[in-house]
Structures are given as structure tokens and as C-alpha cells.
Design goal:
The chain is of the alpha/beta class and 366 residues long. Helix content is 52%, strand content 11%. α4 links the parallel β4 and β5. α11 runs antiparallel to α12.
Length: 366
């Protein structure tokens, strides 16, 4: 049976004001800052990301006579860290936020922009998540534990996806982003199972259709996309994969309107970050979600698909068990995960038989 579905956000925030994906897109930053009517951007970035984008950003801002003002942000998206940035002297007088980096950096930039009620431009340096696109931030405390997500009232104003950078990202980041995108179909299937069309929200149905398309396309293109980034070549395979994992996956999330589209697998992700923060700190979002997808597939009644999925994960270097990411493989661990997932609102009203199936499904992560 389908588990409970709740629309968290009433509006369909379908995208960004402008999404530009091309070689050299970072060089458009100055134009986009001026397009927003801004004069003094504040750039949040990481050390590695800045080394990749610094030269282009400096050139673009200098050409438009826009001052350079950047801050190296370390760690996960933390509300207290964001508050300190906004209260800093360096931020005084800034009129827009620019995020340059990975998913956590994108989330931190969006959170700062929401708190300051300012426009935001994102320049992702990997396609490991769709965070550059989605109008929400996943937040963490100082111990790197998840503390919830904040849905933002406004969409991202502009996203500059520079294929000079993205076609050279580490294969690990590319693969992680693909598996995070694959989760959309697997998790939405849980929401639709056993429901009639009259009972299904049209946004969720639309997201399912798109999810089915990208699931097949991403798996078909993954070998060629991996080869492209190994060679540092901007081929159609890597261009399409980046577009699907950032832009289309972001649209899929928007269509679902936060209606608990992310089910068992993402709950396992959140639980892992909370219960085992030190063990999971160095593992990517998509890697943790993918392990949860093995349980999700079994719960969905797709046992044979789960076997094939596990094999696919292993073939591209993904971890396939909790033990591989340093989490104790014990019955106590599995009971902890069961209690975390079973106690969530999405499992309200499910039968004792369904809960027993959930317990069995979690064994797929061992």
C-alpha cells in the first residue's frame, strides 16, 4: 500500500529565474548581477570550488566594475554559521548572494539569501545534487547532524552551470548525483502504489512521469558520462547528465511540492546523519541515499530490481552496505533504523504487515 502523502508547500516553485548551462558560464556572473539590479554581491565558496572558479569570477566582475567580496565557507549548511556571516562587517551593504561550490554550499547560500531577503545566484562546481536549483536548504548543527529543511518562499534567481568545470568534476561526484536523481522514481513509486488517479495529486503524478524518464536516461548515459569526465571532455552524455541531475531533478522536486516524495531512502539518509554523524561525515548525500534505495526497492516489492541495482552501484564504485561506510553491522543498528523510519508521519496508518515488510527491507542495507 502507499504510505501517507502530505503536501508541505502549497505553491509550485518550478525553477529558477534563469538557468544557463554552457562552457564558460561563470563568465556571465557580472552580467547576471547587474541584471538583478545589484552592485555588491557577496560570494560564498569553498576552497576547492574557489580554485576552480576564481579566475573567471574575477575577470567577469572586473569587466563590469563590480567589487570582489568573497568568503570561504567550510562545513555543512549551518543556520548559526549563516547568521554570523550576515552579521559580519564584510557582508554590510551587500545586495545579493552568490554561491560557488557543492550542495552544502548551495544550501548555505540560499539560506543566507532567504534570511537577508536578497537575490541569489548559484554556480555549482559539481552535479552531486540538485541543490543549486531547489528552493530549500537542508540544515545541520555543529555536529553535522541534520536538523531539518527550510523551504524558501522565493526561487533561485539564476544558476550558471559551467561545463568547463562540470565536465572535469570527480567521477565520484557525478555518480553520486545520478543516484540521488534515480531516487525520485523509486521513492515516488511508494507514494503512488495502490492509489487511484482520483487520489493522486497531479503534481506528484507529473513528477513521477519525469522521474521515469530520467531514471532510464541517466542509467543509459552513465558509462559514457563517466568516461567524459575522466577525459575532461564536454560530450553530449555529460552535458545531458548534468542537465538531468541539476535542472530536471530540481523540477521533479518542485512538482512534488514537498509532498513527502522522498520516502524511506531519504529518511535513512537523515537518520544516518543524526545517529552516525562522524561515520557518515565524509560520505556524499547520493551515496548514503543509494544504500537506502536498496531497502526502498525491497519495500516497493521490487526484490529482483534491488539485486540489479546493487550490482549497478558496485560497478561504478558506490558503497552498497552500511558496513562499507563505517556503520556497525549489528542487529541494534538495524533496530535503530527501523524505529526511526517507522515513527515518521509517512508511515502513519500502515498495517502491521507493512511494518514487518519495512523491517525486512532494511536488511537489504547489510
Amino acid at each position: 500500500m502507499a504510505t501517507k502523502s502530505e503536501v508541505v508547500e502549497s505553491s509550485f516553485r518550478l525553477g529558477s529565474g534563469r538557468y544557463i548551462q554552457e562552457e564558460g558560464a561563470t563568465l556571465l556572473l557580472g552580467d547576471e548581477v547587474l541584471r538583478l539590479g545589484c552592485k555588491k554581491p557577496f560570494i560564498l565558496t569553498g576552497k576547492t570550488a574557489w580554485s576552480l572558479a576564481e579566475k573567471k569570477i574575477k575577470a567577469s566582475l572586473k569587466e563590469k566594475d563590480i567589487p570582489l567580496n568573497y568568503y570561504i565557507y567550510e562545513g555543512f549548511c549551518n543556520p548559526d554559521h549563516c547568521d554570523r556571516i550576515l552579521a559580519s562587517e564584510a557582508f554590510r551593504g551587500c545586495d545579493c548572494l552568490v554561491g560557488v561550490g557543492g550542495g552544502n554550499l548551495m544550501d548555505a547560500t540560499k539560506l543566507c539569501a532567504a534570511k537577508a531577503n536578497l537575490p541569489v545566484i548559484n554556480i555549482p562546481t559539481s552535479s552531486a545534487t540538485c541543490a543549486a536549483y531547489t528552493p530549500l536548504s537542508v540544515m545541520y548543527n555543529d555536529k553535522f547532524q541534520t536538523i531539518g529543511s527550510q523551504h524558501h518562499l522565493k526561487e533561485v534567481n539564476c544558476i550558471l552551470v559551467d561545463m568547463d568545470i562540470l565536465c572535469r568534476q570527480p567521477v565520484r561526484l557525478l555518480v553520486s548525483g545520478v543516484y540521488d536523481s534515480l531516487a525520485k522514481l523509486i521513492e515516488t513509486t511508494q507514494r503512488l502504489d495502490g492509489k487511484t488517479e482520483e487520489e493522486i495529486d497531479i503534481g506528484l503524478r507529473s513528477s513521477f512521469v519525469l522521474s521515469d524518464f530520467i531514471y532510464k536516461r541517466l542509467l543509459a548515459d552513465l558509462p559514457a558520462a563517466c568516461e567524459s569526465v575522466r577525459r575532461g571532455e564536454n560530450t553530449k552524455a555529460i552535458y545531458d547528465t548534468v542537465y538531468l541531475t541539476i535542472c530536471v531533478t530540481g523540477i521533479i522536486s518542485a512538482l512534488a511540492r514537498g509532498s513527502n516524495q522522498c520516502s524511506i531512502a531519504h529518511k535513512i539518509y537523515e537518520s544516518t546523519r543524526v545517529i552516525f554523524p562522524s561515520e557518515s561525515k565524509t560520505w556524499l548525500h547520493g551515496e548514503l541515499v543509494a544504500i537506502g534505495l536498496l531497502a526502498q526497492l525491497y519495500y516497493n516489492g521490487e526484490e529482483e530490481t534491488a539485486k540489479v541495482f546493487r550490482s549497478q552501484m558496485g560497478s561504478v564504485g558506490m558503497p552498497v552496505t552500511l558496513a562499507e561506510i563505517g556503520i556497525p553491522d549489528t542487529d541494534k543498528t538495524m533496530e535503530t533504523y527501523y524505529n526511526e523510519v517507522a515513527s515518521t508521519p509517512m508511515m502513519d496508518g500502515v498495517s502491521a504487515e507493512e511494518l514487518q515488510k519495512l523491517r525486512r527491507s532494511l536488511e537489504e542495507m547489510r
